[in-house]
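Hello support,

Our group uses your service weekly, and this is the first time we've seen a run hang past the timeout. The protein is DJ-1/PfpI family protein. I'm not sure whether the cause is the sequence or the server load. Input pasted verbatim:
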Amino acid sequence: MHLIFVVYDGMTALDAIGPYEMLSRLPGATVTFAGVTAGPVRTDTGALRLVADRALADCDAPDLVLVPGGPDVRAQTSDTALHAWLRAVDPATTWTTSVCTGSVILAAAGLLRGRTAASHWLALDLLPRYGAIPSPERVVRDGKYVTGAGVSAGIDLALTLAATIAGPDVAQSIQLATEYDPRPPFTAGSPRTAPPALVSRLRANPGLVMST
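Update from on-call engineer: The timeout came from a worker crash unrelated to the input. Re-ran successfully.
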């Protein structure tokens, strides 16, 4: 099973690395990090670089595509080379997936029209602009399209996919091997549970999602 993780300048590292740590452990999985051009990309913090080993144009017939998000994906919502590649490979993928604002990129490429999708909670209102139906759920599956909410939700998305692809035993083995047993110190990981003042402050100064 060939998995392609799309990378680009300004992406959020955990959007890709979290799912990679889970899905790369699937039996028979091979992974390629690919970008519009091959070479390093710098993530949103500016301190970390990831490497696209191949150009997207040199990658065909992936079984699974994952598109990560980032705080500002305006370039990727108008990136015709990325969109053209996504549209070209999508008919043959078994799974087309995204994490965080990666769903906005998929939607802008025309792949989520009329489909329900998750995204970062501050970006959900961007999806209808491209014909997608926003959902506040952490992981959303609509046919072969699987989308995750903000950043850390990529791990849950990957384990959900692992269970569907290889069965619950394999997925649970991966979860145990990576000791994914989240016990956050605060109940502030969702706008439904975080202090209202914090939610309001983040809405007023997002910092985590694209500006338009």
